[in-house]
Amino acid sequence: ELAGRKYSEERKQKLARTRWGSMVVPIELKSDISRAPFHFGNSRTEETEKKIKARGQIADYATRIMQRQHRLFLFMIVICKREARFLRWDRSGAIVTDAFDFVKNPEPLHTFFYRLSKMTREQHGYDPTVVPADADEIALMESYKDKLPQDEYLRKCLNDAMERGWPIQKVMMRQEDVVSVESWCAAANKADTTGSTPPDTSQASSACGESSPGSSSDAGVSDPGPHVSKDACLASASPPRCFLVGKPCATSDSPTGRGTNGYVAYDLATGRLVFLKGAWRARTANSEIKVYEDLWKAGVRCIATPICGGNVVGSDGEVQQTVTQKYLTDIPVRIHCRLVVEEIGRPLEDYEGGEDLVGALLCALIAHQDAWEKARVLHRDISAKNILLHIDSKTASDGSNTIAFLNDWDLCRYEKELGSATQYGRSGTWQFMSALLLKFPGLTPHRVSDDLESFVHVLNWFCLRFHRHDHPTAALQQRVLSLYDVSEKDKTSKESIGGATKLNLMNSGVPAASLDEDGPLKTLLEELAVLCKRHYSGIDTKALQAKFSGRPSKKTLRVASKRLVIPGVVQPTHDGVACALPSGQDVPQRQESEVFSSHTLVVIAFADALQEDAWADDKTDDQFANFKVGTTKGQSTLSTGTSSHSGSKRKPEETEDIAETSSAKKF
């Protein structure tokens, strides 16, 4: 019968497909109580693997809807036999009602649907600052393709953004959020010339809900969050700055946490493509646009160029934020924020050869060094995804050629925020975190040396993936798994630990990637391995191990990740771990050599390698592509890159830094 009907091509595209982009309230039906995500009926069944998977299933539904819709929150109904529960999802978690028998008492269900029919889109959970683009606006975005060559990278980005089935939306940002890098630099230069200090922007930032380093909002305040008056942020005669977005090029695969989405966007004001990132930062985290302001004022090189950014203010004049934390303990308030930058970076994996890889890493090292030495900002998430290639190389103010930039400063910390006496936290991408942070969580603060070690791991990781070495496929997969992916729960603290193989490697003075061919790249790997060995020779790891093994169980531990820990299959995102330490005098001090106490030796090693002339076209096909199920090639970026394969996203373990994995498989 179906075959005999004449369906249009558009109709065929919709057959047997779940339209996540059109779903308002998902309803999950379960006929088996043992397979329901929560308890139903009179008997409280045991917590089973089936129930855990069922909760993962409804979390996946919420994720898919949030990926395709610009949502602040989401309602859901779960029904098992004759009972139902209502759920409300936002980026801090899900609120679940008690089960009720809708046969005996249908009123709650009737009332819910009646009120749902009377509610506005904003009351349904849709973001009022995002509206459908009109036909003329979409035509402008479409016409921009004609200005780009067929093989142009930006054309591919635009085609992906306008993929069929993804409606074009208009994101509206306040004129108050538009920034000027030139003004920042001019203000900094004027301060240098006159000898005066730049104006304090902390009060202005706080007026619009931004937190400044060291402010009370960074001190773990538990109130619902900042409120913004209409007079402060909405009473403006200026029209909003508008950007058109379609399919995200990067998105989170978790319904909770930062919920970062990245878009190649069309700027209606300039008629150019830009990169727009939306996220839900913890209230105690630094505002990324404020960090960029400080970096630019300090003259930090090799970073992105912001256009606008800040907290998102709703139609009620208040900053958009989560509410789940009002009902769950130890859950941070999350604030909706956006950032728009000029650069649409290529993923680092697109480098052409070893020389380009080393050059890109050197650019990122320069940015990291400048940020620390000039602005006292530590990035804390050096990874394969956060170092991006410029589409076209840029000439810096000092005349140097910049081919890459260091991105994603949302987990950074200012120097005065590092090393709390009672709480240390891990932040970063699991594969590239230092051995110490992986193996001894909570015993050592995140330092410059940890980020420098991460640069070494990024270089080795790409060499294992794209350069000729002496590891056959099966052995390579096992090596990558043991070095970069293994994670297990500590029986006492219940924290995820790893890094044992990585620590042994750091102490050996041997690089992770043993290349076949001699040359500058192989020499650099060997020199960095020696530096790592010298660095770890000054650290008493035995004392750290003894202290870690003897720590009491931490009652403050909270891991909000919904995923199972299956080493080698999917590395979980670890959300919000508060590390309760013994008293300060009981914490072993990390005595380090001077090797990684500054950037000097690492920068020199990279710069010297680039001075060599014997660079060859040595990049191979992706050697991770043939890995069996159990480890993966990578995942989508959550930054200004647009590739779907590279290093996995970060695994922060601080109450104020809860992140997520992206939509593709996670290493």
Automatic annotation (TrEMBL):
<feature type="compositionally biased region" description="Low complexity">
    <location>
        <begin position="204"/>
        <end position="226"/>
    </location>
</feature>
<dbReference type="InterPro" id="IPR011009">
    <property type="entry name" value="Kinase-like_dom_sf"/>
</dbReference>
<dbReference type="InterPro" id="IPR040976">
    <property type="entry name" value="Pkinase_fungal"/>
</dbReference>
<dbReference type="Pfam" id="PF17667">
    <property type="entry name" value="Pkinase_fungal"/>
</dbReference>
<dbReference type="InterPro" id="IPR008266">
    <property type="entry name" value="Tyr_kinase_AS"/>
</dbReference>
<feature type="region of interest" description="Disordered">
    <location>
        <begin position="629"/>
        <end position="667"/>
    </location>
</feature>
<feature type="domain" description="Fungal-type protein kinase">
    <location>
        <begin position="45"/>
        <end position="150"/>
    </location>
</feature>
<feature type="compositionally biased region" description="Polar residues">
    <location>
        <begin position="191"/>
        <end position="203"/>
    </location>
</feature>
<feature type="region of interest" description="Disordered">
    <location>
        <begin position="190"/>
        <end position="227"/>
    </location>
</feature>
<feature type="domain" description="Fungal-type protein kinase">
    <location>
        <begin position="329"/>
        <end position="463"/>
    </location>
</feature>
<dbReference type="GO" id="GO:0004672">
    <property type="term" value="F:protein kinase activity"/>
</dbReference>
<feature type="compositionally biased region" description="Low complexity">
    <location>
        <begin position="630"/>
        <end position="646"/>
    </location>
</feature>
<protein>
    <recommendedName>
        <fullName>Fungal-type protein kinase domain-containing protein</fullName>
    </recommendedName>
</protein>
